[in-house]
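Figure 6 in text form: structure in, sequence out.
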């Protein structure tokens, strides 16, 4: 009879280990979901605001390069702040957006210093930024992690 109890103990211990591992997985998933939601709470407003402002400023580089530099620098700082509080693919994508905003700043500096704007380059950079931000926001929406608006 002791052999039967030993088998029950082994099976019982195995079941507890399996439950424990499943619980850890569920906890890990919950943490991952919460992290994704927090990242989306940061990314979504940036994607909307920065994307819209970049579109306006990119069209104004030739007319007001100094104003464009000021606005773009503030936008880049905002994106860099988001990079600092996110991680992984989101931080990497935001880093790419920041670099591209820096490329627009360089175009504006060139015009400010007497150069001519290369509109095709500016348009390409603008498209890259907007597409990157739209993709990030879309990922949040697809995951159902876009923060809900408060009335």
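Output sequence:
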């Amino acid at each position: 009879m002791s052999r039967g109890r030993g088998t029950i103990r082994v099976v019982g211990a195995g079941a507890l280990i399996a439950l424990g591992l499943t619980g850890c997985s569920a906890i890990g998933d919950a943490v991952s979901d919460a992290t994704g939601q927090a990242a989306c709470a940061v990314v979504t407003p940036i994607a909307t605001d920065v994307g819209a402002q970049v579109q306006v400023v990119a069209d104004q580089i030739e007319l007001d390069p100094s104003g464009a530099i000021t606005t773009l620098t503030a936008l880049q700082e905002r994106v860099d702040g988001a990079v600092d509080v996110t991680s992984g693919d989101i931080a990497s994508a935001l880093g790419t957006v920041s670099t591209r905003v820096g490329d627009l700043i360089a175009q504006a500096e060139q015009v400010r210093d007497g150069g001519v704007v290369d509109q095709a380059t500016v348009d390409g950079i603008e498209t890259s930024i907007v597409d990157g931000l739209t993709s990030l926001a879309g990922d949040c929406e697809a995951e159902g992690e876009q923060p809900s608006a408060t009335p």
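Caption detail: The chain has a mean pLDDT of 78.
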